[in-house]
Amino acid sequence: MMNSPWSRGRLGLVVLVLGLACAGRVGAGKLEAADLGRLRMAALDDLFVLREYRAGKNSFVESPERHQGVWTGAGYRYTLLDLEGQGSLRHIWTTRGDGDPYFDWEFYVDGESAPSIRATDVQLIAGAEAFPVPVAPANYLPVHNRAFNFYLPVPFDRSLRVEVVQRQPTFWLWFCQMDYRLEDNALAGARLFGHPAGDGVAFSYVGLPHQQRTASASRLPMRTEEAAPVAVAPGDRRRLLTARGPAIGRECRIRWEGGETLRLLVRYDGAESFAIDSPAHRFFGPFEGVSFYRHATNDASCYLPMPFRQDAEIWVENQGTEPVAVAGSLQVEPVPAFAAAWGYLHARHARTDRTDGHRPHQVLYVRGRGHWVGMTLYRTGHDHGGGDFAVIDGEGERPAFLHGINGEDYFTFAWFGQGAHHPYAMAHSNDDGRYRHHFENLYPFRESIAIEWGAFAGLSPESVAVWYQDVPGDTTVADGARAESVEWDVFGPVPIPHDAAGRATVDLFSVLPRVEDLDAGGQFECRLVKEHFTAGWVKEWSVGPMLNLTYLGRHGTKIDYEAELGGNGHAALARRYLESDRERTARCLFAHDDPVEVWVNRECVYRGESRFNGFEANWIELPLRRGRNEIVVRLTNYFNRNFNWSGFLFRVAKDPG
């Protein structure tokens, strides 16, 4: 790829259209090298240019049985997304049982009274396949094991509402995830329309800007930096090669002997710490895809671009007991200058020695500005143990929360599907490795990003997070920022009685025991959908300012797959203490997506209702007395636009004096 004329200049739109159309039609199978090369240009060419939009995600696991009063018959209408502002919908993933489609999907753009697009899931994918212009790195993926992936961007200038209209009298189970962005004018003035065409839908854009998918950073000729083979002694660390900049590394290839004892380290521009730090076999993985490609055993390439100003150093470390022979190369694209908007490629390996079921595996916690690309996972076990959850800018004033559903679905497959969804994902197995890279909708962050992965108890999951950041050094925070986190007393979940229409028949928090009784050692029943247990206070650590109670019930249950995360509504309690050197009023940033109450020293200071599009943050005032202050949060967990995630963000502003 890198020696072709395409890599040194600008790729013509017609050529790329033909190439990607060809690549898309074999996207679920093994692609030829030329097809992978074209997809790499579409997905990776400017991946390092830091984005500024606000990423969002809505997620659903639904059925008439799980969500009382909803999905009541043919013609029933349900709103999945209701956004205000400017941006675009970037990805829909959905799956369902066999047979005919459950829904007609309707898209209302900028206040439309009639939808500009109306189609079933089958028709959406067929229409995207027939649309030739590569508006996304790949506009669609072939339907794979009942997984429907739609990547054609749906732009809006003022608002977007997405609804589904039930076609069937009833259905078994339905899943959906929707990725979107706000505060983004990249497609300003553009509109996507769906026109009836036979039994399907034909798509057309109006006002679509020129979609040049690649704009090469330089016309200077490529060069390859080769590293002579070196023998790395046990416990030794060796610099394999140094490339001079300004330049962009386009392919980093490492060849080594031995198995899992070699560690890959990359440092840029004289930084004191390494930006990439991972066992080599975990960094590259077993993949033959767009981002990573294994040529042979212990011989693999990374194609994620690696910009640097002055130099890039590739180091290797032997963590085994026998010498390891290592060689490598870096294909380099010289550039006139390192642009101010560029970021450095970072990657970090993490492992949880043994999961307890209720505290997720911490994939990444990093401070600073950048955008997150995605991750590789290994040894995660049964995927109904949990899934992905991201907190963006938890230290800022506008935190965002992106929560998926079951782990298998994060990788764009369904029903434990395996294979290749180029360029976005590859899945071998839950243990052998899967990666998902969000080329359609990267996650920009300005203050920080924290990524967690839910898993059943008794596992040793591993992950490799990949992101770009505006500094070359390492700014990750170890172990979920444990030194800055808080241990909470927590209790629950307790079901809230509801009628057949899904309305609560009691006060939402009346099902909870009194704090005084829990403090006295009381034990009370907790219940999920099927399983139940008795408990008192238990302990849970926050991750920085974020307390995740999605898996609270796993303090006492074994969990019957993902069904135990469902149900119409549950209540829970969380309690911590704040010390104050004087009587004062403290401001606190509090974010939630379900009905909640905050109490300070047995006085209610905040009541919040359900948030339609997920988490919203509010500044609330905490009346603190001198000494120790009790903070109690009474929260619920309902079906809304973030599946069954339960928890909140609680961050007290610094005392000005």
Structure commentary:
- Helices cover about 5% and strands about 45% of the residues.
- It is mainly beta and about 650 residues long.
- The strands form nine sheets. Strands 13, 15, 16, 20, 22, 24, 27, 28, 29, 30 and 32 form an eleven-stranded mixed β-sheet that branches. Strands 12, 14, 17, 18, 19 and 21 form a six-stranded antiparallel β-sheet that branches. The chain has a six-stranded antiparallel β-sheet with strand order 36-33-38-43-40-41, with no helix packed on it.
- A hairpin with a 7-residue loop joins β15 (about 260-270) and β16 (about 275-280).
Key structural traits:
Jelly Rolls; disordered N terminus; eleven-stranded mixed β-sheet; 7% helix; globular; 657 residues; six-stranded antiparallel β-sheet; mainly beta
Question: What count of domains describes the coordinates?
Answer: 5
Strand content: 35-45%
State the name of the first-level CATH class of the largest domain.
Mainly Beta
The largest β sheet comes out as:
11 strands, mixed
Based on CA atoms alone, the radius of gyration comes out at 25 Å
Query: Any idea what the shape is?
Result: globular
Unreliable stretches covering 5 or more consecutive residues: 1-28
Distance between the termini: 59 Å
Share of helical residues: under 10%
Number of helices: 6
Number of DSSP strand runs? 44
Query: Assembly state here?
Result: single chain
Please name the CATH architecture of the largest domain: Sandwich
Main structural class: mainly beta
Mean pLDDT: 91
- In CATH, the topology of the largest domain is named Jelly Rolls
